[in-house]
Specification:
Order of helices and strands: EEEEEEEEEEEEEEEEHE
Helix content: under 10%
Number of strands: 17
CATH architecture of the largest domain: Beta Barrel
Number of helices: 1
Distance between the termini: 38 Å
Radius of gyration: 18 Å
Strand content: 25-35%
Number of domains: 2
Low-confidence stretches: 1-8, 13-29, 38-50
Strand order of the largest sheet: 10-9-8-17-12-13-14-16
CATH superfamily of the largest domain: L,D-transpeptidase catalytic domain-like
Structural class: mainly beta
Shape: globular
Length: about 250
């Protein structure tokens, strides 16, 4: 039986289910984030044989207290972020910027394209790297998981419809969730993203968080069929979920 749902929501994959209020909500009180993938994926990559992107950095924070951040490098560190996400995952934040001794972190509490800035010298910060990244090409409706420049996995996906286009940008995976705690429309699994849908359907009562998730309508793959989220096939999504750690960067382009 599907569990009850709390007030935190994703943009659901299709408007046909928008009328079902339970379908618009995502974080059940009983939900437990999935166990992290194998630690070796967080180590630096081997020396590449050809030109390859630098490994991506991930910031974790020691202790249980909130994370304090500024809205820009050098500004007062006046905002707070719980050490765990709304879904209960301990935060691992993608480092997406660096400026004058500060690092910019990708968090869902900030608007798309805006970072949370913390001094790089903050004692609580522990930095690691991952060679992994996720890339979504909206025009081709393709998703790739890459290790450096090498493609590990590729799949056809569903993307936002013309009126609710999936917003392009750089995001990060914030949570890895089992689909059994959510409506069937989310499929087997959910990778919650830091991004937000700015063009939600008219009358939408759900949330605006973006995600890569499964679907119970496989014929929607390869089409502009969602309200903003990226729909993925179950087999590929399960492999993705078993590989990428929280904090992995996600690049979505037109």
């Amino acid at each position: 039986m599907r569990s009850r749902f709390a007030h935190i929501s994703f943009v659901l994959a299709g408007t046909a289910l928008a009328a079902l209020s339970a379908s618009c909500v995502a974080a059940p009180p009983q939900a437990t984030p999935l166990a992290a993938p194998a630690p070796p994926e967080l180590s630096s990559p081997e020396a590449p044989r050809s030109r390859s992107p630098e490994p991506y950095r991930i910031a974790r924070f020691r202790g249980r207290g909130p994370i304090r951040y500024a809205t820009a490098a050098g500004r007062p560190v006046a905002r707070r972020l719980n050490i765990r996400t709304r879904f209960g995952t301990r935060r691992a934040l993608a480092v997406a910027g660096e400026r004058d001794g500060w690092i910019g972190l990708t968090v869902e509490d900030r608007p798309n394209g805006r970072l949370a800035w913390v001094p790089a010298s903050t004692p609580r910060i522990a930095l690691s790297t991952t060679p992994l990244s996720v890339h979504v090409d909206l025009s081709r409706r393709r998703l790739q998981l890459r290790r450096g420049a090498r493609v590990l996995e590729a799949m056809t996906v569903g993307v936002g419809r013309a009126d609710n286009r999936t917003p392009a940008g750089r995001y990060a995976i914030t949570d890895r969730l089992s689909g059994r705690d959510y409506p069937d429309a989310y499929g087997c699994c959910i990778l919650a993203l830091s991004g937000h849908q700015s063009r939600v359907p008219a009358g939408w009562k759900g949330g605006d968080r973006l995600a890569i998730h499964g679907t119970n309508a496989p014929d929607s793959l390869g089409r502009a069929s969602s309200s903003g989220c990226v729909r993925a096939p179950e087999r590929g999504l399960r492999r993705l979920l078993g590989t990428v750690p929280v904090g992995t960067p996600v690049f979505i382009r037109r």
